[in-house]
Amino acid sequence: MLLVIDNYDSFTYNLVQYFGELGADPQVKRNDAITPEEVEKMRPSKIVISPGPGTPADAGISMELIRRFGAKVPLLGVCLGHQCIGE
Predict the structure, then answer these.
(1) Measured distance CA(38)–CA(11) in Å, rounded
(2) pLDDT at 23
(3) Torsion angle of alpha carbons 13, 35, 87, 9, nearest 10°?
(4) What pLDDT does 42 receive?
(5) DSSP per residue over 68-84, as a string?
(6) Cα separation of 44 and 27, whole Å?
(7) Residue 71's pLDDT band (boundaries 50, 70, 90)?
(8) In terms of Cα–Cα distance, which of 21, 33, 27, 61 is closest to 46?
(9) What is the mean pLDDT of residues 42-66?
(10) Strand pairing partners for 75?
(11) What are the catalytic residues?
């Protein structure tokens, strides 16, 4: 399952549409509407951290997900998500 963390950016749903066109069935969760424990229970095979306003400090659980899952699950960060991975 592909999990997309939405950092409150309208481009997130462009990404979701593209992933769907490629055969994925992405699940979208807002960065403040899910906990790392809930993500663990979902057992995602891939995680995408979306664009959004602000800095990595403003990206809700994005940084914690990178710390917890970065060595176990493939991650893709776009714009703010990429900044979070680089932080």
Answers:
(1) 24
(2) 98
(3) 20
(4) 98
(5) HHTTTS-EEE-THHHHH
(6) 9
(7) very high
(8) 27
(9) 98
(10) 47
(11) 79
pTM of the model: 0.96
Residue 82 domain boundaries: 2-86
Amino acid residing at 87: E
Please answer whether residues 69 and 42 qualify as being in contact, where contact means their C-beta atoms are separated by less than 8 angstroms: no
Are the beta carbons of 56 and 87 closer than 8 angstroms? yes
32: its two tokens? 């403040």
- Read off the tokens for 39: 């993500």
Residue tagged 């899910």 (tokens): 34
pLDDT at 21: 98
Number of domains into which the chain is organized: 1
Write the CATH number for 15.
3.40.50.880
